[in-house]
Amino acid sequence: MIKQAPQSIQKFSFSKPPRIAIVVSRFNQIVTNGLCQGAQEWLSEHQILFYQEDLYYAPGAFELPLIAQKLAKSGKYDGVVCLGCVIKGDTAHFEFISLGATIGLMQASLHTEVPISFGVLTTYTSEQAQIRSEENKENKGREAVAACIESLALLQKI
């Protein structure tokens, strides 16, 4: 018999409270601030403490992987949430930055065996980015931190 996956996990059990780092790209700051706010609200709603000293700012999305890897290797954090925004322009720059951030974050997570979540918006327009960072339940920062916490809970269970 195949187990059905739960639609939404609301309760997590940890041997000790998880400590999460959040790394936010300063590029497209209006959007990334909204993602960061959403992530912090989700943690608060789930009674997971977050300290402002665990909030880090990167110049842009391309720099997220190195910073996330360093935080994951520090032993201080159980998970790292990376938030950024890359909006397509008229050149191929969008593709290079998006791909570099994506592969870099995946490699960092695999290398350190620490959940590093991908909360980098890759949109075609500013409007799409703004919608995904608004103060509501659809905020992609909320989704990124939820994925990190859920992954951490499952890894601890394994």
From TrEMBL:
Pathway as given in its UniProt record: Cofactor biosynthesis; riboflavin biosynthesis; riboflavin from 2-hydroxy-3-oxobutyl phosphate and 5-amino-6-(D-ribitylamino)uracil: step 1/2
InterPro entries for the chain: LS, LS/RS, LS/RS_sf
CDD domains for this protein: Lumazine_synthase-I
Pfam families (alphabetical): DMRL_synthase
Signal peptide extent: none
Active site: 93
UniProt-annotated binding residues for (2S)-2-hydroxy-3-oxobutyl phosphate: 90-91, 132
E.C. code: 2.5.1.78
Residues the record lists as binding 5-amino-6-(D-ribitylamino)uracil: 27, 61-63, 85-87, 118
Keywords: Riboflavin biosynthesis, Transferase
GO cellular component, one term: cytosol
An annotated GO BP: riboflavin biosynthetic process
Enzyme class: transferase
Catalytic activity: (2S)-2-hydroxy-3-oxobutyl phosphate + 5-amino-6-(D-ribitylamino)uracil = 6,7-dimethyl-8-(1-D-ribityl)lumazine + phosphate + 2 H2O + H(+)
Role played: Catalyzes the formation of 6,7-dimethyl-8-ribityllumazine by condensation of 5-amino-6-(D-ribitylamino)uracil with 3,4-dihydroxy-2-butanone 4-phosphate. This is the penultimate step in the biosynthesis of riboflavin.
Family: Belongs to the DMRL synthase family.
Listed name of the protein: 6,7-dimethyl-8-ribityllumazine synthase
